[in-house]
Amino acid sequence: MSASMMFAVARAGFRRHATYRQATVAATATNSVFGCLRAYVLLATATGAGGVAGGYTGEQLSTYVWIGQGLLGVVLLWGWSDLADRVRTGEVSSDLLRPVNPIWTYLATDLGRAAHAFCTRMIVPLAVGASLFPFYWPNNPITYLLLPVSITAAVLVCFCLRYLVNLTSFWLLDIRGVAMLWVVLSGAASGMYFPLAFLPEPVTALLYYATPFPSIMQFPADIAVEYGGLSGQLWRLGLQVLWCVICLALAWSVQRRATLKLVIQGG
Amino acid sequence: MADSVVRPYLKLVGAQIRSQAQYRTSFILDLLGQTVFTVLDFLTVFVVFRITPALGGFDLSEVLLISALAITGFTIADLVVGNVERLSFYVRTGLLDAMLIRPRRILPQLLAVDFQLRRIGRVALAVTVLIVAASAGVTDWTWWRVLLVVITPLTAAVFFCAVFILTATSMFWWIDAKEFSAAFTYGGRDFTTYPITVYEGVFRRLFGYLFGFGFVSYYPALSLLGRDDPLGGPGWLGWSGLIAAAVAATAAALMWRTGIRHYKGTGS
Fold first, then answer.
1. What sections of the protein cross the membrane (chain B) (predicted)?
2. Which of B107, B108, B114 is closest to B8 using CA atoms?
3. B34, exposed or middle or buried, with CB in 10 Å at 0-12, 13-18, 19+?
């Protein structure tokens, strides 16, 4: 797929979501309410722990929450079944007839969607958080360069995992069970409810190094609040890039197997 | 006469349960999955207390009692009316019009056709945690405390039912804004999971007092624990859940009626 084509598809993805104005307003308002709830609880945790909780100051924790609430919409953690729906109805066969591998079309569409979400669903909760709560502004200018890369990597990893969940529909047809497993795992293991550093150390290490979930939310939020300094930021970004490559390769190869499996019903 | 009114809905619920139980593996997996969500709600409380000995001036057993009262109420409400969330789907697809034609009341129909028995696992888990938390936290049992620990999850359930219905009703006007209702349903659950001393300023006043979530679990728990309110509220607020539930239920009933009358269909 050529770059210009990819860009055109991404633009269509952006424009498609720009038309859902009510939904965008509702989602950002909801993210902001949850941001307040989680920020207050984590701030109280920091206060109770004597100012620093799990290595985060109160300011860092509250900003961590607001970055997470913004990211939720940008990476689109939940509620994506476009591919599975097309597999179930058989429409996926027309995707496969096109001269472009469907994974690129879906990825380009998703990047366009993420760009729209960044302009709306990321900015609004961040503005609410920065104006109402103690907020951590990065000290090191490099953070402003690392953060966009980290967020892009988060979008890519999350897209690949959602794509993999959807691909299981080639075998299972009904993906409700897998989807539920995904919601449980991705919510708990990505660091959305609390920073994973709150967990016992071996559990944290296992989640960090053996699963792609922290790349979706924990790592971009950590990079934003400069958790662990520059070296902490860099190895997190490194892990994210590594998971990007692994997840893309996995999604690619699973899709190839899935299409071999596809039987187009006649009639 | 009441029998002939209620029976059709019970039959609908029964049919729904039988059809879901047909696929036993799928049902058990669903049941387990749903229960895991509630495990996570409680687990978060434990994780937070790994880091801090006190939250908003309360220790683990006290916060756990507040959480258990709230989550038990929420899970019961979710079991009974949670699927009212699907109203936007019924409005959008025009299925609601089909229901309106039938000579039965619309809300019970809506709840009965989509009844999800698999949510019962959450209720069972929450009740278990409540029993453990109450026996660990409440030292001085009197008859009125026994009464309070029984009615609080029930009033909380009525309150959350009202919240589910109130937020669903907004979909008659705002079809595409389904996500907004989560701010009050799941947001309300999260708010009531922790003592309201955790929240500050306008946010606490809005959610705690104006929307009434403070009366769902926080004040009843204070009475059960025999603690004074650090915010200076009077002791009788332990029973305020009854009033809050009654007010919320009335508001929900009125809004629902207005919503149904206002409904014009989407033309689909």
1. 27-51, 63-82, 123-144, 150-175, 206-225, 237-256
2. B108
3. buried
For B102-121, give the secondary structure using H, E and C: CCCCHHHHHHHHCCCHHHHH
CB contact under 8 A, B180 and A26: yes
Mean pLDDT of all residues belonging to chain B: 89
Q: Chain B: nearest CA to A245, how far in angstroms? A: 30
For A74, A104, B88, the CA distances from A6, given in Å and listed in that order, are 19, 8, 34
Candidates A20, A30, A198; nearest CB to B180? A30
- State the Cα–Cα distance between residues B181 and A26, nearest whole angstrom: 8
ipTM: 0.90
* pLDDT tens column, B51-85: 999 999 999 999 999 999 999 999 999 999 988 88
Chain B residues contacting A via beta carbons under 8 Å: 26, 29-30, 33, 36-37, 40, 43-44, 47-48, 50-56, 174-180, 182-183, 186-187, 190-191, 194, 197-200, 203
Residues making up chain B, counted from first to last: 268
Which of the given ranges, A19-28, B19-28, B41-50, has the highest pLDDT on average? B41-50
